[in-house]
Specification:
The complex is a heterodimer of chains A (about 325) and B (about 260).
Chain A (H helix, E strand, L loop, with lengths): L1 E10 L2 E11 L4 E5 L6 H8 L7 E6 L2 E2 L4 H7 E4 L11 H11 L4 H14 L15 H13 L5 E5 L7 H14 L4 E5 L3 H7 L2 E6 L2 E6 L1 H8 L3 E7 L6 H6 L4 E6 L5 E6 L6 H10 L4 E7 L3 H10 L9 H13 L7
Parallel strand pairs in A: 3-8, 3-9, 6-7, 7-8
Antiparallel strand pairs in A: 1-2, 1-4, 4-5, 9-10, 11-13, 11-14, 12-13
Helix pairs in contact in A: 3-4
Chain B lengths: L2 H15 L2 H35 L7 H25 L1 H8 L3 H5 L5 H23 L1 H9 L4 H28 L3 H25 L3 H9 L2 H8 L5 H24 L4
Helix pairs in contact in B: 1-6, 2-3, 2-6, 3-8, 3-9, 4-8, 6-8, 6-12, 8-9, 8-11, 8-12, 9-10, 11-12
Classes of the chains: A alpha/beta (about 325), B mainly alpha (about 260).
Chain lengths: ~325, ~260
């Protein structure tokens, strides 16, 4: 549905995106992740024909973005970073204008209007001036605008910004429900959102795509070993050596709290039952035993921060760094 | 409703929900009324003088004494107030980030430019229509020829269209409305003063070309009651040029 081939965009000497290639199949939801100024919005603007690429080609639903912009625009519903609303209009008037602009008229327009208003639960504010609505409602009006003509392709630049937690869940559900019938590209800084909503993730950094896969595959690919965290009630001096002696264990690192360890095992081996057996036999008092998986946040940070010590979740980092990452979960905007 | 009509309807609504049309309209009609009152007053004073000198009823020409002066004076009012009407058209869209939405909607840039121009021109024609009250009232008390008045109104419509197209162009250049108003104000004043520059060159080719670029002589002929094809061509080509330049400016934002 969307084919982007080697697009490059330069602003003077500054290269905003460099040789970006990706594609989105019909019915697929793709997340665009990247730190500030990575080129997410630029890519979206090229796809929506707001500006052309310096090099390369982008096609949407078979139409070329440079050669056939009007055909491309008809296939797309676009929500820019700032919801494009006219404050002096009521919700209904604004959506009517949007519909007319897209050539929808008569009874078709009123049914599209009702459908879109219903979908985003704007019924209670439909006759209010947009200027008087809260940020969350404006964002929903912006989304209603993008969905109004039921386009096969949706491009959403941070669709859940400004919404309250309940609304965020509703919008995520809405986007999920669009999968299958619509192709969706969304950019987000909320990493769990990408995991929750998208089938595929593209991580872009400094204008280049650094990774593209499903969230699970991404973390699996970057993982170098299986990691297991255990906490013991009593740990005699030899317990570390005994853990190391288990076949398949590569390394044992002491954790932050007394009695906790991080055990690195060979990739593809699950040693939890063996570790549990050793702990019980030695009467160490096994309090906790769990595998550590790499979250999308870890993947994201590893790919975009270029720092090796953040490569994989280490027990020592679980306490402090994870809290920091949670606070840092929204990485900023392009 | 076509996309162009949708743009026109949206802009008209934008004008009427903001105070701009009401304020500009009130000021324009007030000044037009005051100017009319002054020129009628002068004409009255001249009539009294003539009566004293000649004795009996004096024949005075209202077309010359009132309407020509009125149409000539209204130019400066238009130079000042029309940029206020046009300044928001593109600048506001850029400021409020709705410009990106317009540019990614399936509508041609030509349609956007024409839609915006037509909407402000309709508003302007509405204001001009309000001024017809002055000759209508004067008709009750005196006799004059309506034909030069109609050509004067034609001139006002054409001059207004040209001024508005300059304003639309200026609005497309910036996202600051004040800057947009000043750019169009400056351009219109320059086009006015160029007439004087042409006069300095006298009856040479350069002088004629420079005078032709200014709207002054073209408008003056219409106000005097002359409909010359070359003047109509001047206004039509000026309007087309400004709208074309606006199109290029709007389109060029995609390439920046």
């Amino acid at each position: 549905m969307i084919d982007v081939h080697n697009i490059t965009k330069r602003y003077g000497h500054h290269t905003a995106i460099d040789q970006v290639t990706f594609s989105v199949a019909k019915g697929e939801v793709l997340a665009f992740l990247g730190p500030n100024g990575a080129g997410k919005t630029t890519t979206m603007r090229i796809l929506t024909c707001f500006m052309p690429a310096t090099e390369g080609s982008a096609r949407v639903a078979g139409f070329d973005c440079t050669e056939q912009p009007l055909d491309v625009k008809r296939q797309i519903g676009y929500l820019p970073e700032t919801p494009p609303v006219y404050q002096e209009f009521t919700v209904t008037e604004y959506l009517t204008f949007v519909g007319r602009l897209r050539g929808i008229t008569g009874p078709k327009l009123s049914s599209a209007l009702d459908h879109s208003i219903g979908r985003l639960e704007l019924g209670s504010v439909r006759h209010r001036l947009i200027g008087n609505l809260s940020r969350g409602y404006r964002q929903r009006v912006g989304l209603a605008q993008a969905l109004l003509h039921d386009p096969p392709v949706l491009i959403l630049d941070e669709p859940t910004v400004g919404l309250d937690p309940k609304q965020i869940i509703e919008i995520r559900e809405l986007i999920k429900s669009l999968a299958g019938s619509h192709s969706v590209i969304l950019s987000t800084h909320i990493l769990p959102e990408a995991t929750a909503v998208c089938q595929r993730v593209v991580i872009i950094d400094k204008g280049r795509i650094v990774a593209e896969d499903t969230p699970e595959q991404l973390s699996a690919r970057l993982r170098q070993s299986e990691k297991i965290s255990i906490t013991l009630k009593t740990c005699p001096a030899d317990c570390e050596a005994k853990l190391r002696a288990i076949a398949g264990v590569l390394n044992v690192l002491p954790g932050q709290a007394g009695g906790s360890f991080l055990i690195e095992c060979e990739l593809g081996r699950d040693l939890r039952d063996e570790i549990a057996r050793v702990a019980v036999l030695n009467q160490w008092g096994l309090l906790e035993l769990r595998t550590l998986s790499m979250t999308l946040e870890d993947v994201f940070l590893q790919l975009t921060r270029h720092e090796d010590h953040l490569a994989e979740p280490v027990e020592a980092s679980v306490g402090t760094a994870t809290a920091e990452r949670q606070a840092d979960g929204r990485v900023g905007s392009v | 409703m076509t996309p162009v009509q949708a743009v026109i309807a949206k802009e008209l609504r934008g004008y009427f929900v903001s105070p701009i049309v009401y304020v500009v309209g009130a000021v324009f009609l007030l000044i037009f009324g005051l100017l009319s009152y002054l020129y009628v007053g002068f004409a009255g004073a001249q009539a009294i003088q003539l009566m004293q000198m000649q004795g009996g009823m004096a024949q005075i020409n209202l077309n010359d004494l009132v309407f020509r002066n009125l149409f000539a004076s209204i130019r400066i009012v238009l130079v000042i107030i029309l940029p206020i009407l046009t300044m928001r058209l593109f600048a506001e869209e850029r400021k409020l980030r709705t410009f990106e939405f317009l540019m990614t909607s399936p509508i041609r840039v030509t349609d956007i430019v024409i839609g915006k121009f037509v909407s402000v021109f309709v508003i302007y024609l509405g204001l001009v229509a309000g001024t017809v009250l002055v000759p209508t009232v004067l008709m009750l008390f005196s006799d004059f020829d309506w034909n030069p008045i109609w050509t004067g109104y034609l001139g006002m419509a054409l001059l207004g269209a040209l001024f508005l197209s300059v304003g639309v162009f200026a609005s497309a250049l910036t996202e600051n409305q004040i800057v947009a108003a000043f750019i169009s104000f400056g351009m219109l004043l320059t086009l006015w003063l160029i007439a004087g520059l042409g006069g300095l060159f006298g009856d040479t080719t350069a002088g004629r070309v420079i005078s032709y670029i200014s709207y002054m002589e073209h408008y003056d002929r219409l106000v005097r009651g002359l409909i010359d094809t070359s003047d109509l061509v001047y206004f039509a080509s000026g309007l087309a040029l400004m709208l074309f330049l606006t199109h290029r400016v709007v389109e060029s934002t995609r390439w920046k």
